[in-house]
Amino acid sequence: MLNLSNNRIKGKVGLDNLYSLRTLKTPPFAKHLARWILGLFGIVFLGLFIPWQQNIDGYGKVTAFTPSNRPQRVETVIGGRIESWRVREGEYVISGDTIATISEVKEKYFDPELLQRLEEQIYAKEASLDAKEAKAAALERQVSALKEAMRFKLKQAENKVLQMNFKVTSDSTDYEAEKVNFEIAEKQFDRQQKLYDQGLKSLTELEGRRLKLQEAQAKLISVENKFLGSKNERVNAIIQLSTLEAEFLDKISKAESDLGATRADIFETSGAIAKLRNEYANMRIRNDQYHILAPQDGYVVQAQLAGLGETIKEGEPIVTIMPESPDIAVEMYVKAMDVPLLTKGRKVRIEFDGWPALQFSGWPNVAVGTFGGVISVIDYVNSKGGMFRILVTPDPEEEVWPKQLRLGSGVKGWAMLDEVPVWYEIWRQLNGFPPSLEQEPQTDDTKVAKK
Predict the structure, then answer these.
(1) Tens digits of per-residue pLDDT, 173-230?
(2) Does domain 114-287 have CATH number 3.30.450?
(3) What is the CATH number assigned to the segment(s) 53-69+326-450?
């Protein structure tokens, strides 16, 4: 109603009795609903400015931070056949305890006295080596003796050649002297003959001179023969010198050849002994491998083989051992686009499978049942599916992780980043933008460069 007339009926007629007016009237619940809607819009609008902590989520499992504390497969060093089991699954073992005993399956090692046989072979080879070394020493002495004898013999032959040279010189002088004497005797005979022809000398004197001439001639022939003999002896001495050196060189060469062959045998025998010793050492070590020992303290959690008489190959796992007190950590995988935003020391909220939890990723302070962690390792290369692995260790400032955790349990985690308003996070998510940081993440290289 417009209320233009001065004759008002307001207050005289009950408005609730008029259907039209009652229909046009705003219901009270609508006013309350409008107030509630306006209030909710106001709350939502104010909520857009509430701080929201950006995060990067990832999935993974519980593991051990130190590799030696992770489940370890015990493998056999040699192949064989299982003879007996010394442990049961779930049993606690100490480092050095026998897990199983195996026996040989290769015919080469069937002989139970194989080590003794190898020792006998080594002893025989060593005795042979001693004999060959003694032979080599004897040959060395023989070579030295031959060289020394050759030196003396050559010196003796050289002295004989020198002596023959002196004798040839002496005989040559005698020969020349006798030639002069013969010429003188011949001239004297010629003069005596002329005097005899003239009748000045008697026949007796001529015959005497002829006799002296014949004596001089005979003596000349004797001295000449002696001179020629000396020259032949000198030639023979020179030939003997050359022959003697050749004979000794031949003997020395043969002795040195025998010495070289003996030394070659010594080296070959030494190599055979080294090979036998190596085989002996390998056999001793192999005998110790018949007992498969626990490499560390822990629990036997899984047997890869069962029963007796089964054949196993070299390097084949036989059981798995879980260390008693592993240093628990979380192995998480994040997307490659999120790795540049992570740094060591970043806080992480973790939700373990099977552990009741209520997580608000943007408000970690109101999360229930989650546990705190710190990023300790970020891999430099990607893993399966192009994801990058990070290792998260317990946060010493947060609640202790449950003792009931088992390695391999699934986890979900949120790596905490910087705080932004809620409206910015909604806008970022709608546009598909990555989270933002106030400062550039510091890598290990950056920290070293700043130092």
Answers:
(1) 877 888 888 888 778 778 777 777 777 777 777 777 778 878 877 887 888 888 888 8
(2) no
(3) 2.40.30.170
